[in-house]
Amino acid sequence: MCIERFADLAAQVVKSPAKLGPVRLVAVDGPSGAGKTMFAAGLTRVLRANGAATVEIHTDDLLDGWDDMVGFWPRFDRDVLEKLRKGQPGEYRRYDWHAARFAERIRVPVPEVLVVEGVTSARAVIRPELTLSVFITAPRHLRLARGLERDGAHLEPHLVRWFAEEEGHFAADRTADHVDLLVDGAPDVPLDPGEQYLRRTAAGGRSGER
Questions:
Q1: Theoretical Cys-Cys bridge with 63: which of 68, 147, 169, 191, CB 3.0 to 4.6 Å?
Q2: Phi, psi torsion values for 172, nearest 5 degrees
Q3: Which among 96, 115, 105 is positioned nearest to 6, based on CA atoms?
């Protein structure tokens, strides 16, 4: 097992070649409540601190509600990724979950690194253009508890259905079998709040280590 910190991972990303035109694309995938947002924020923070122009996008801001877990991608590819491939700024409409409609337009400048966080972000169609792919894991009961605390108990039916759809997608896509890095989102050792311990796996195969 190879233990790294965000500083090591950020350095690896910057040294790696860009595959999405001039952009190094990082996908932080995994089921809801596993810890993707915290991980992506930590990596983005370190990349920026090291001088890399970095943009972070959350797939939750791209979805057209609860039924758009997978279907949003062509729109995202057309409006953002295709533009960045050409070295041009992209743009997307942010979804307002409270108003249940799309809100303001968000401009995406051409960054050195684009971190895309969210369910299906490391899907098969984008794998050839990923500089780094990460899959965060955590037990289902813990993820559900985190989701209810974050979103409210009244959304439990939506979350339970979402979990089932995630499982179906990940099984069909075999996402976790193809990522560069598997991360334990519920580690059993005390962690410094500013650090994240990672467990590495070679692309194409899981690591059985903790």
A1: 68
A2: -70, -40
A3: 115
- pLDDT for 153-175, tens place per residue? 887 887 888 888 999 999 999 99
Q: How far apart are CA 133 and CA 166, in angstroms?
A: 17
- What is the pTM assigned to this prediction? 0.86
Q: Please return the burial class of 21, using the count of CB atoms within 10 Å of its CB with bins 0-12, 13-18 and 19+.
A: middle
Which of 5, 19, 91 shows the shortest CA–CA distance to 55?
A: 91
Residue 201's pLDDT band, with cuts at 50, 70 and 90, is very low
Query: What digits encode the pLDDT tens for the residues 35-84?
Result: 899 899 999 999 999 999 999 999 999 999 999 999 999 999 999 999 99
Residue pointed to by tokens 């991360």: 183
d(CA 82, CA 90): 8
Q: Which two tokens stand for residue 173?
A: 């896509």
Return phi, psi of residue 103, to 5°: -115, -130
**Token pair of 188 as six digits:** 């059993």
Tokens in use for 5? 């910190």
What is the Cβ-side half-sphere exposure of residue 59, based on CA atoms within 13 angstroms? 26
